[in-house]
Amino acid sequence: MEAASRFVSERLARALALVVPALDILRERPDSKEAPDFCEARGYAAFLRALPDDELARCEAEGLASRLPMLAGAPPSLVELGRVAREVSALPERLAATPGTRLDRPRSVSERKTRQLEALLDAVEPMARKARQIVDVGAGRGHFTRLAAEMFDRDAVGIEREPRRVEAASILGRGTRARFVVLDAFRDPIVLSPDDLAVGLHACGSLGDRLVLEASRAPCDVALVSCCLQKIDGPLREPLSAAARAAGLVLPREALGLSNLTSRLVGVEASLAEMLSARKHRHALARLLRARGVAIAPGEEMRGINRRRAREGLGELAARALALRGLAPATAAEIREHEAEGAIEFARIRRWTLPRAMLARPLEITVVLDRAAALEERGYTARVAEVFEADATPRNLAILGEAPRP
């Protein structure tokens, strides 16, 4: 346990030493064919502009950091940034190479979700066995809540803000020690007791921060696998730990969204080619909206639209975006213009994006370590590790925090 504690503080210090000096990269999302300020200021622009198309594709699939040592003409500062990014990204362990728990998968649960449930049940078992109650925050339809109640023979309560999900979970949970309540954990008090185990499986953004703070106030054991760090209450995420506050780790929402990127030729939900196509459609949509006089920041073009819709093409995407804003449908000429011009611009934007994408995983790790360090500063024994295989979900970083005992 002492080694795990040293790991959190030591790795956070190394992560902060990478991420904080690179905040200029993280804060500026490339959105035009012109090189962003950080590329010009750091001397990256000429190198990225001259990158051959086939090498660009390899960098996107394998990650720029892994390719930089082999690329002639790469700026030394960029090569060093990549080296440190690889180092920070290398967590020392997986919690379990092969889960011991094997579930009979219900029809309503995907194979990937089943693997996540199996792995998390294994990971929390030591804490769950000594808990009086398991509190599942953001329970959804309650799969983890029910399984934990049955597997560990404990009372379990699932907290979920959507009444329909609570109703469905309650029906599925009849006859078990699981119960479900409607509560908006982003806004309403989360009441925890010292002998509870608080769990958040893919608790998004501010909810992950809140779960750490509420658990530490009890104090009770906590297990958190975070997701969608950009889903925060305001424009900025303030750090939780004293170490991150001292370093100045204040992250804008736009930078936090970068943590969702993963360099993989074949993604969990779609191939790299499909994801790039979706990003191209989003850029074309942003062009179209601005041409219509809509002032939007990068990323806001998808407000109110599921991100998966970007795979459907600009026509469908524009129809939804314009309707949401009370604007007339796009003409065929508008679609052709913004598809063509957007494709030209996006070819250059892909190059400018590479340094930011290289920092995606280190950024996610830094936020997770900040949360774990906040627990450690409050007397917890905290452990951080990968809990799932990346092909089950790339959002696979777990914090397991054991509360201080009297």
TrEMBL record:
<feature type="domain" description="Methyltransferase">
    <location>
        <begin position="112"/>
        <end position="232"/>
    </location>
</feature>
<dbReference type="GO" id="GO:0032259">
    <property type="term" value="P:methylation"/>
</dbReference>
<dbReference type="InterPro" id="IPR029063">
    <property type="entry name" value="SAM-dependent_MTases_sf"/>
</dbReference>
<dbReference type="Pfam" id="PF13679">
    <property type="entry name" value="Methyltransf_32"/>
</dbReference>
<keyword id="KW-0808">Transferase</keyword>
<keyword id="KW-0489">Methyltransferase</keyword>
<dbReference type="GO" id="GO:0008168">
    <property type="term" value="F:methyltransferase activity"/>
</dbReference>
<dbReference type="InterPro" id="IPR025714">
    <property type="entry name" value="Methyltranfer_dom"/>
</dbReference>
<protein>
    <submittedName>
        <fullName>Methyltransferase</fullName>
    </submittedName>
</protein>
